[in-house]
Amino acid sequence: MIPTPIRSVVLQSTRRALLGSITPKIPVRTLSTSTHNNTNTHSKEVAADSKFHNISHRLFHYSSYGLFALLPAGIFLAPNAQFIDLALNALIPIHSHIGLTTVMYDYVYGAARKPAKFLLWIVTILTAVGLYKLNTEDVGISQSIKSLWVTDPKAQKN
User: Fold this and answer.
1) What is the pLDDT of residues 23-37, one digit of tens each?
2) Side-chain half-sphere of 37: how many Cα atoms within 13 Å?
3) Diameter of the chain by CA atoms?
4) Which of 4, 42, 54, 100 is the most buried (most CB within 10 A)?
């Protein structure tokens, strides 16, 4: 076996030799997030958007960790998982909203972005209300998910 540093050098030089002439040169545009001595309003917007993106990116990943832990725990503990169901009631809409906002910023442009944001907020609010009603007036999120794998209707009541 070839040691890792030597192997990576060999692979890189081979790739450059084989693909160097046919690989297109794609210019990389960097956006400055610094507002120091800069009167350009675009840079200020990028800086503010970058701060928001950083916070929402972290919240998205932390909600992923929460969903990763709480969903199996809720299914295992159902129907006695009321606190887990309430946590899922908060995490699912937050995680979905941030993820769909990212998709919207990637694929919706111009004047269509404002109505898309509004529609996304409506969907997020309806999701949160629906999950709350499922938790308070029905069996709960965990028991609903667990019931997808139960085949015997008599066993589902337990």
Assistant:
1) 555 554 554 444 444
2) 0
3) 71
4) 100
140: left (phi over 0), alpha (psi -120 to 50) or beta: left
Nearest residue to 87 via CA among 67, 59, 61 = 67
Q: Per the structure block, which two tokens stand in for 29?
A: 């545009």
Nearest Cα to 146, choosing from 84, 93, 87, 101? Answer: 84
Q: What is the CA radius of gyration of the chain?
A: 24
The first and second tokens of residue 49, run together, are 């958007």
Backbone angles phi, psi at 27, to 5 degrees: -70, 140
Residue 74's alpha-carbon distances to 63, 66, 69, 80, 96, in angstroms, are 15, 12, 9, 8, 19
Query: pTM of the entire structure?
Result: 0.62
